[in-house]
Design brief:
mainly alpha, 43% helix
Length: 280
Amino acid sequence: MSAARWFCFGVVVALSLHAVGAQNATELCSNACSFTSDDHSTCDVIGKFQGELVAWSKCSQVCLDAFSIRIEGVNRFQVENMFPNPNGANGNVNSFASFLRFDSSSTANGARAAFGDYFKDDNFNGILTLISSGSTPTGFCNSQSACYDNLKSYLNTPAGQAIMEDIGQTLWLQLQLENELEQSVCRIRMCNVHRGVDSGRSTALSHCYSVYEEVASRESQVFGCSAFGFGPGFDVTDPNPDPNSQAYACGVSAAHNPTSAALALPLLVAALTALQALLL
């Protein structure tokens, strides 16, 4: 089983604004956000509105903070420290090994499952801990400290590096998804603000002006604010999507990635639960 399978992804993504019509998808997506640290502040977030593929302006971090919109299943700074490259390559072995051994999060526990020779559920409670003795791919160890050294040695082997890269890429894809979901929530909030369901119009105008105006200009076209929370929506189960389709051309996000999207259902349910109050 691939190490990526310990993580699941959702498919709720943000929307966009500029009218499409017969616009070429490549042209539409030329300024699309990839939701990595390389994005610039004026990139567009691709999605669908009323069946049309469109490109919304991005909610800035100032705007997100003003409305306390923050979705963080994994810590960005921690991920960037362990894996400076979004493709997971050239990860920091010491940082990642420390994460595996000491981090108590469910994310770390899931990652430990990829290293079954070094971590065991001795208490039968679902929590994996570093072994204190035993035979490992990098030799026998008779103390937790020695087993930790063996783990770090393994992470420097080609096999260990491959698993690290897989996990690093998975964590970055999760970060991308969370950033997209924040954008979706932001747009739904702007719709609720415009309708008076949510307070904060002055805050929206001062910190989220472009996004607020874009949503306000289309708010009357829909019954519910949930219409501002859909993504491009090409069929992620199709193993051979049409490369000429608009949605395929804009498939730059974690949620559109066929590998991650195939594992999407659990996080999608959680994401929809989190959005429930905003979708009314």
